[in-house]
User: Fold this.
Amino acid sequence: MPDFQRDPETRVHYDVLGQGQPLLLIHGFMGTGGTEFGSLVAWLARRYRLILPDLQGYGRSTPKPRTYPVNFYQRDATDLVALLEHLAYPRVSVLGYSDGGEIGLWLPLLAPERISGVVTWGATGHFDASIRPAVMAMLGMG
Assistant:
């Protein structure tokens, strides 16, 4: 269960499982690399080398608590590009769920030479004003 020290404040915890072509799985809000994808991990690991990071502030990654500045999707994508460089994978495919999908969409913008494709599901891109109070309450900000 390795960690990658991105900078003095940011440590990214990640797991690597399976064999084959590398596939980066990016979890969503309140998940972790090890919990978000359930039985899908065992199935995918038969064919792919899975990279399962915990995003900043989730699971075993730091800093904590997680913050949500305006650029947090881009910040998380920058962390993941640095992780891919650290792991020395020349190209990876990306599968992102929810916020992980939003982050995944940043990766080919930041490192097109490293990303062979992106699949997202559950990525919203926008919280309607009617659900913002519930989201803010979940974050302890409402």
